[in-house]
Amino acid sequence: MAYRRIRRIVASDIKLATTVTVIEAKNTRVLACAVMKPNDVRFALPTLLLGASLVGASLTALSCSDSSDDTGSNNNDLNNADASTSDSGDNNTNPVSIDPTRLLSFAPLPKVMWPAEGDSNNRLLFQKKVDLGKQLYFDTRLSKNNDISCNSCHLLDQYGVDGQPVSDGTNADKTATPPHGNRNAPTVYNAALHLWQFWDGRAEDVEAQALGPILNPVEMGMKDEQEVLAVINSIDGYVTEFAAAFPPEDLNATGKDPNENTTPVSYINIGKAIGAFERTLVTPSRWDAYLNGDKNALTAAELAGLAKFMEVGCDTCHNGVAMGGRGFDLLGETNAWPWPGHPNADGYEEIGRADVTNDDADKYVFKVPSLRNVEKTGPYFHDGSVTTLEEAVNKMAYYQLGKTLSSDDVASIVTFLKALTGDLDDATITKPTPLPGKDDGGGTTL
């Protein structure tokens, strides 16, 4: 069965997920509920199947729950509260009623998005990786022309994006082939909650994702791993920080990297350090306060937008802690997407996840993006072709769900989506002082 007929609803924190899969086949829907670790979602077998007659039933009827308490509280608090909520400032006479059982497909952010293995039990060592990772994240010396860092395309003070349809990378003069990337740079905030990274899911976690752009010729453009390691080893401060963040007992701790992770300064450890830093990039918002039981966290207008969001069916794909990032879907699920000419002017033909799987069934399938901070992360979609949030909502409703929304409906949903905008941490977005390096003899400071 192709991706286009599968939907996942996930309520989770980073350690445990409650997954409800809606499978559509020949106009029949079946719900499958399973509790599993996030990394197991794509392989798990459902533990509970219900017939189509139960599709409209509440999620509590499925006996699905999230037993984790990393956030200190979870949306189950709302089950014991009056879900009729009104804004204390703008409309006390018009309460908006939200069925708390519908909220079980969402969950508040954890404080840190811990990796699946290690570090969560050694906070001091993890912090050393975080500090090292931040240095690396901002360091342009990891690029061919010493001009591009992770932060160049994923600007932390701009909600982790650069505001462009596609990023220029180190090849700003457009002389390479292709002259630039073909996909929009997604936000790094809360990205560690996603089950896969990149639009096509070719990396399993932020640690693996961090290594890709460094060697990509149209991003940071380094020739190979050895060239990158030569730069790191030429900077005494990095050698010291890698040794502290990756002590002997931490090297190859899982036994999975016998050839790559036997010394502190290794390519895989660059990814682990940057990934550790990115796991601290969480942006709690008023939405999280609401899920944690604060009935006054959202205004009446925002709650009305939430109700419309769920009524239209947006939460079919945009759910879980990240409000997305938990699965893949065909672009143009219900109505055919208006693709531009293939290939484009640069000779590139976009085929989505099929680039990774080489399976025609995955053509035009993309990872469902997160909606957290979506107000701030335009332009939208894999190619950055949509500039406004209102147009993005309209297109998703029509092409994915087969629904035509009124302007009032769109405005209401957008009002709710803006409540997903979180706060940025000043200390996190402050650029660190580069570690002093050596001169390579050609005038470039390494």
Instruction: Show unreliable segments.
Output: 1-93, 440-446
Q: What is the CATH level 1 assignment of the largest domain?
A: Mainly Alpha
Radius of gyration: 22 Å
CATH superfamily of the largest domain: Cytochrome c-like domain
Number of strands: 8
Largest sheet: spatial strand order: 1-2-3-4
Helix content: 25-40%
User: Helix count, per DSSP?
Assistant: 12
Q: Which CATH architecture of the largest domain? A: Orthogonal Bundle
What percent of residues are in strands? 5-15%
Secondary-structure element series = EEEEEEHHHHHHHHEHEHHH
Structural class: alpha+beta
Kindly, what is the distance between the CA atoms of the first and last residues, rounded to a whole number of angstroms? 51 Å
Tell me the CATH topology of the largest domain.
Cytochrome Bc1 Complex, Chain D, domain 2
Q: What's the main sheet like?
A: 4 strands, antiparallel
Number of domains: 2
3D shape:
globular
- The overall pLDDT, averaged over residues, is 78
What does this structure look like?
The chain is of the alpha+beta class. The protein folds into 2 domains: 3-111 and 283-418, Cytochrome Bc1 Complex, Chain D, domain 2 (Orthogonal Bundle); 123-281, Cytochrome c-like domain (Cytochrome Bc1 Complex, Chain D, domain 2, Orthogonal Bundle), CATH 1.10.760.10. The chain is built from 12 helices and 8 strands. The chain has helices at 123-138, 150-153, 206-215, 225-233, 236-245, 267-278, 286-291, 300-312, 354-357, 389-401, 407-418, 426-429, and strands spanning 6-12, 17-25, 28-36, 48-50, 84-85, 96-97, 328-330, 365-367. The strands form 3 sheets. It has a 4-stranded antiparallel β-sheet with strand order 1-2-3-4, with no helix packed on it. A two-stranded antiparallel sheet has the order 5-6. The chain has a two-stranded antiparallel ribbon with strand order 7-8. Strand 1 and strand 2 form a beta hairpin. The termini are far apart.
